[in-house]
């Protein structure tokens, strides 16, 4: 906000000296009771000094409102005139004497205090008493005729005793009062001890009471005059007395009554008979009283009353102009009224009042400024006397005392009440004197001060536009005051507000003033800037005015002086012309670059790339469209475009050398001539650099050079692709419009239809190769998945430096990168050290039509979807616009490949009876069955399988693979079975590891050379349980009806204890049997008991064997049920064969 | 009656502005422009009120020594500003309201014209005549 600060500093330069129209200080101050202190020697006596300081230093707001003054004891107070006993013959000469307020504020005290050093135990009491009485007497003498009170303060060294205890004190006090003719209430004692300030506060409170009594008496005195007055001759006195009562009330701090009396006074002042001769006096007094009323209203926190009073005051007084020849006095007075009210309002706000947007001091300052402007105007009309007229002598404004007797009277006829002018010549001389005095007033300073006050207020109350308006007025006032630099500063600052809000009329008016300022200062760049905007389409000037400005601008460009702006003073024009002449002769920097983006210049510019992207082997094309809005055709000398890559700048220049005199020549054929209203199009073409492939080319600037470098030259500079402050909105409106575009000849363009395109992408040349991928999806986990890439050149020339990049496309899940590996070598399984993306695999050169194939192997360690990228790049030489360039082309292909498990391995544990086991028993063999179920859509060859047992398991027989070289089609499965046994384990272990199952496999279709993949499956854990007894049966695989069937049962004690066992065989319908039917056995630890039975089947078929019930007495939990699982329950019994065939059956 | 009538676009640029020819036209432009401060403030204060309770008439914007400035805002935030001579005390609030309503109706007619492009300066003769009648009325 530097401009803003400048603007503020502009205002501060102006210092206001006290003016004729300023209110007197005694009116504006807050009246306080006046008390004088005598007998204090504040210069040489430290005690007195301390007392005085306690009275007046650091008075806080809560102390009583008294104004103190130290005076010598023999000070002469103003003489009191003898009191009038009758008003019958008295004719007042004016309303209020100029000295009256000051007299009661600062000269005539309400109370005189006599300080005297005297202790009660003073040895020379008599003498001191007399001296004190004398001092009081002297004061009384001086105040003869006044009601002023007198009080005595005794300064004592000792702290007084409580009242009544000091007999001498009360005695001597009474004597002192008597001697000085004082009442007891007017005698005070001031011990100067530690609590001085406390005593002083009590003292001044007592003084304050005395003062109030005095002022009350004064009010009564003035009121008592009233009854003697009559309405015909004493009209002025009514006002005077009312004012005095109100003023005394204020001194008494009775503001309510003061306000009431001022209001009465105000009404009375307007009841006075008014005439041109006393108008000023009436207005002056009305202004004073109004000021007092408003001030008190604000003080009483009734701002609306204040505003209402002020409005009433203004409405009444607005029309009371008085003498027409001195009408500037009226406007000065009006201005002062508004300014004073604004000050009061502002002061009230500082004390806590809240103002609003539509009611704030700013409005009053603004109005004050308005009247000040009017005053200036009237003054310029009324005071433009011929220089030969001299100031009248003797000076009619001279008064004997140097001051007026009464407020608002004419110095040359003071105290004359008659409305008739007794001395017309004197009157004329007086008026002339006033007019000549007015001539010397610096009106602009007054106006600017008021405006800047208003600006500060409106800034506070959220009125940015009002602020701008006032700043414009300030700028104009500076222009009138011939301070063009400050004027321009202010105007420049607000211009952009009006521009951005698109108030063209206002902008034009500001620009016109600014142009005048820059002309008068011969500021070339400013002059050009304002001219080019005034010629622009946003300017509301008429064609003639524009034409004049354009001609001037051309003159400036030809290094000549422009014609003066109309409406400028002849005298200032002369100075300006001299300045311009100096400029012409002065060789200096004659090139002016003007950034027009933020204005509305008279040349519009739009730059447009023909396409948002260009291939590098195609020339980049763009057009610059220019349109002039000025009234006459204009020639430019150069058009150039700047890019972010400055190497292109050289290709985009339009230039035509011409004589500087030709600038106005109306030849429209010239390439560099802009015809008003016509859109000119300049097309450029250049070849992009190969380094810029993949980059953006941006237009960073468009420069239009007007004038020549030999004369003066103005460079209109647009940032980016043109456009200005008004163009975005215009483009928007044009886009909304349904209007049909006017039909234009072939080679012309409709301006609105052109859009700015300031940047374009350079993209690589279209590749002429084919990239084909051959593979067999899906990929199987961990296999070396083969991807054949075939690259075929379709270029017409050799392509060089062909490089292939293949692998996992970057930007996918990070986990995929770690679980995917790419290699060119398919012979061995690649490990984690291989990358996920193989970059820049050199392929070499390819002749036209040549084809090359590459195999890429990838290993995917996890299932899921992956996107693979195959990217081929190469270099090729091409010719663009006769330029040989090496183009880098590339083509990429992506492919999505799913990875799946090749097969599922299922494992289960079964008993020797092929019954499912959820646990195995220690030392008892069981079977492990594996199932390999192919999930691959392609045939798989199982190369080998291997069971790697853990230490906790032992194989019962040879472990050999049964699935070697087995080919599995989709959905097929291969199973294996291994007999295993677990040794007993220490208790507490949940399960034991069996080991791992390793399958080596590959795709059936792949070449021999490709490695075999091994997949390891960890076998599940199994719970191993120990049993006390194991039963094993030994029986033939089948029986035959009525043939003996020997069955042996082996009972094995697995414990280290001797086991008692009950065995019973339950009979079965299908068998007869021999053997021990029920027995109790005892088996020694670790031994086996053999039981032999001979079964004799009676029926054919699948028959239930007679069941063996075993009861282990030591282990009641170990049930028969469990034991039965180890022995067969059924057997197949064949029927009895026919005799003839017996042999054959036996053979079977 | 009215000494100046203005129609201001939503973006605060003038769509139409006409003042009595006898006075300084520029002065009215400034008056209308500065009054937008108050209009903006009133609209932002109104934003909090319910939409359907919204009063279009903004009332007296601010009094100057010589003129009174009244405002009115349509639902699409197009503003009407009318400047009335302060001395014309006969003019009641109700009459101002009805004048604004008339202005709004006429503006609606302008908008209904298919050849009018919203946002362009108003150049309708009917609208012009209506404004003229407002400025002629009574005095």
From TrEMBL, chain A:
Location relative to the cell: Golgi apparatus, cis-Golgi network
Domain of life the protein comes from: Eukaryota
First and last residue of the signal peptide: none
Biological process, per Gene Ontology: vesicle-mediated transport
Ranges for domain Trafficking protein particle complex subunit: 278-536
Pfam families linked to this entry: Foie-gras_1, Gryzun-like
Domain Trafficking protein particle complex subunit 11 C-terminal: 1052-1110
Keywords, in A-Z order: ER-Golgi transport, Golgi apparatus, Transport
Gene Ontology CC: one annotated term: Golgi apparatus
Role summary: Involved in endoplasmic reticulum to Golgi apparatus trafficking at a very early stage.
The family this protein is said to belong to: Belongs to the TRAPPC11 family.
Protein name, entry field: Trafficking protein particle complex subunit 11
Taxonomic source organism: Microcaecilia unicolor
UniProtKB/TrEMBL annotation, chain B:
Pfam families referenced in this protein's UniProt entry, alphabetically: Sedlin_N
GO biological process: endoplasmic reticulum to Golgi vesicle-mediated transport
Compartmental location: Cytoplasm, Perinuclear region; Endoplasmic reticulum; Golgi apparatus, cis-Golgi network; Golgi apparatus
Keywords: Cytoplasm, Endoplasmic reticulum, ER-Golgi transport, Golgi apparatus, Transport
Any one GO CC term of the record: endoplasmic reticulum
InterPro entries referenced in this protein's UniProt entry, alphabetically: Longin-like_dom_sf (IPR011012), Sedlin (IPR006722), TRAPPC (IPR007233), TRAPPC2L (IPR044760)
Broad class of where this protein is predominantly found: cytoplasm
Top-level taxonomic group: Eukaryota
Subunit structure, as described in the record: Part of the multisubunit transport protein particle (TRAPP) complex.
Similarity remark: Belongs to the TRAPP small subunits family. Sedlin subfamily.
Record-given protein name: Trafficking protein particle complex subunit
